[in-house]
Amino acid sequence: MQSIIKKNLLRHVAIIMDGNRRWAKNKGKFLTLGYKAGIKAIHRTINFAILNKIEMLTLYAFSRENWYRPISEIKLLMKFFLKILDNDINNFNKNNIRLKFIGDTTSFNSILQKKIKLAEKSTMYNDGLILNIAANYGGRWDIIEGIKKIIKKVELKFLHIDEIQESTLENLLNTKDLIPVDLVIRTGGEYRISNFLIWQIAYSELYFTDVLWPDFNDFTFKSAIESFAKRKRRFGS
Would the pTM of this model clear 0.90, i.e. be above it? Predict the structure, then answer.
């Protein structure tokens, strides 16, 4: 596994963290405990990525569709976002982690927005693991926003329509700073990508596991990487 990462065959892992609610329900516990267990899984995953020298880790924390969940659950999620930003920044700096948020964070309340900006600013010079948190993010939204920017450039005559290429849009996406996604992991037993990085994962390898997110651990992560190692990537050729 180490040799795969050292050879730069696996640089960026993106994870759809699914199963907090079902984990709590299956164990007869309150939803709060499911999310608390999910946060512990996040810490394990980050530590695994650091130990195995993965360059970039992207976690799908809150989709644009999640706003349709019950208000009480949304408030709970926002509470946990704030808690992580308050409690984990020192650890991020200690472990040389650079924290970045992708998505429309302007939809969050002003306190959370300030915390996000402060967290990004305080870790911006760290040059270890880059940790992307996809919050209020959707792949379609990202593409639409990029198209709007292209239209504006064309209207202002900064860009001719015949000059538009894949790279034109790619460089205008909210996720333009991401390195190519090598491996996408989805927990919880669902077999779909749920509007996650749909432009960026066109040729990524996908790995699905029945393990619910709170139970995701080093063994599960290692199994995903070992599966990745056995595949021959063709990138459409």
Answer: yes
3 state SS of 108: coil
Q: Which pLDDT score, from 0 to 100, does residue 237 have?
A: 64
Integer Cα distance of 8 and 53 in angstroms: 10
* Whole-number Å distance between alpha carbons of 221 and 207: 10
Residues linked to residue 62 through DSSP beta bridges, in sequence order = 135
Residue 7 has pLDDT above 80, yes or no: no
**Domains, the chain, ordered by start:** 2-138+181-229 (3.40.1180.10)
18 part of the active site: yes
Residue with tokens 């989709």: 63
- Which of 193, 205, 202 has the alpha carbon at shortest distance from 173? 202
DSSP 13: E
Structure tokens at 210: 């029945």
Type of residue numbered 142: D
Active-site hit among 47, 66, 95, 195: 66
